[in-house]
Amino acid sequence: MANVVWHEKLRIHLDLTRDDLGHEGLPGLWDTIYATDRLYAARSVPVSQRGLQCGGVCQEAGVVAWMHLRLRANGRREAVHEKAEDEARHTTPMSDEHKAYQERILLAATAGGFGGDCEVRTRVGRSWIQTDTLVEGADGRRIGWEVQLSTAGEHGPRSVRARASKAAKHGIVPAWHTDRADYAQRSDTQWTRSNNLPAHVIAKAGDLRVVSGFRALDFWHCGVRALYPCPNGARRCGKHHVTPKPRDVLFDDLVRKTAAGEIVPIEHRTASKTHRFWVTSTDRDRLEDLRSDDTVVPPLSDKDVPGGASANRPTCRPAAAVTALARPVATPSEPLKVTIPCQMPPIPSLPAVPATVPAPSPAPTASGVSFASSMRTYVPFGVPKTFPFPQDLLDAQVALDETRAASEEYAKTLPWSAEPMPGWESDKQLHSTYVSAKPDSPGYTEEQAAEVSRFRARLLELSITVSTHSFWDSVAASDRVEARMVLKHAHESAEDEA
Ligand SMILES: [Zn+2]
Ligand SMILES: [Zn+2]
């Protein structure tokens, strides 16, 4: 028996627990539908041709389960599955694996200082939201975990988008987890997947890895040396784009960080599809910056030639930048110690002095600005608000700017494509005498590829240091965006004063 029936022809759900079946505007609905079903039965029309399906557990599991109606002597209305195995779906005890996941989620949440509960019903208006495991996170954040293992039908769970949207609309962040690759590939919600594991492994405290559904956003400049093709067309557009790259994450971390708001669901639209996955809140913020902040996406010359316009802001001079990357090994005479929490040794093969930069680029003329020494006092310049940025945060932001500049400077020494590519010559552009052309590219050497990925790792690390700094907790939420903007320009104004 089930309480919810899907009427195939009318395309509505019938709630048998309600007098009006949940449809105030359709008086006499039960009488009509019941009489019709009886008539079919009298004519021996098979149940599978009467247009009534289980609209509850079976439908959610992606199974078409035909039903007929029954009226008890006490007036009770019932819907009965045609097949016993569908009926069994409603009473089957939860699998051990499923239970193990519920326990694991609650344990991980508790270890992170968050509460939670299983099988939570949250009333919303006249219906409710049933949540497999609900984690009560920070700042009133609620994460609704739905674990979908191998019990569903061949088409997988249905109405996922509708259920996830309904939860989100009522303040529950939907988090769907599965051990099946076919579910994980769907884009109806931010599916995460772990490998298919037995209950005792899921329940153990050891590493449980999430192998899909979490991504790191790779931000890149669409110049001729970009590693990826422009998503908007065949030619380089000069803008910044983002490429999501799959990353593993531990399940316990996922549980805790979603509760803390450090891992968040996003939608990423491409031309043909909306992709849904999880990213760090840092990446999400950077993505929002990318879309809203023109200091992150400076206007660029389309002539991306050595010594030409840099993708960087004008104050981040190449010369200072290239030397800067080696700077974390602070010399004793330096007035300020650079204290970046997760400091890495300098990139070994990166030239420490500009003269050894593998040219073709002309040796940049050094402006000799010492970022560190000019930064001790930060006086905001031309901005309405001031923020007491701690020195290590200011240092990390400078290191980030410098590393980015150094990385872009290094990129100028590289062939224009990572892979070997034939050259090309474009048509003349309107209002421009510039005809872009490229010789054949040999592709990156192994060392160059390694260097590029070292730069990327260092940039990622620094951007995480900056955006997850504990200072941000002391800034009112409404001021955070502005504070981040002010920080980005902090060293510029310090230089102006120097
Ligand atoms: Zn059913
Ligand atoms: Zn582009």
Structural topology:
Blueprint: E1 4-7, E2 12-15, H1 29-42, E3 52-54, H2 57-60, E4 67-71, E5 77-81, H3 84-91, H4 96-111, E6 115-124, E7 127-136, E8 142-148, H5 160-169, E9 172-178, H6 181-184, E10 192-193, H7 199-203, E11 209-210, E12 215-221, E13 240-246, E14 249-250, H8 251-260, E15 263-269, E16 274-280, H9 281-292, H10 318-324, H11 391-411, E17 424-425, E18 437-438, H12 446-467, H13 477-488, H14 490-497
Parallel strand pairs: 8-9, 9-10
Antiparallel strand pairs: 1-2, 1-3, 4-5, 6-7, 7-8, 11-14, 12-13, 15-16, 17-18
Bound molecules: zinc ion (2 copies).
One zinc ion binds next to loops.
Annotation field: number of helices = 14
Q: How would you characterize the largest beta sheet?
A: 5 strands, mixed
Rounded mean pLDDT is: 76
- In helices, the fraction of residues equals 25-40%
| Percent of residues in β-strands | 15-25%
Small molecules bound: zinc ion
Number of individual domains: 3
Give the C-alpha Rg: 29 Å
Distance between the termini: 79 Å
Structural class: alpha+beta
Give the low-confidence spans. 293-383, 426-430
Number of strands: 18
Strand order of the largest sheet: 6-7-8-9-10
Shape: elongated
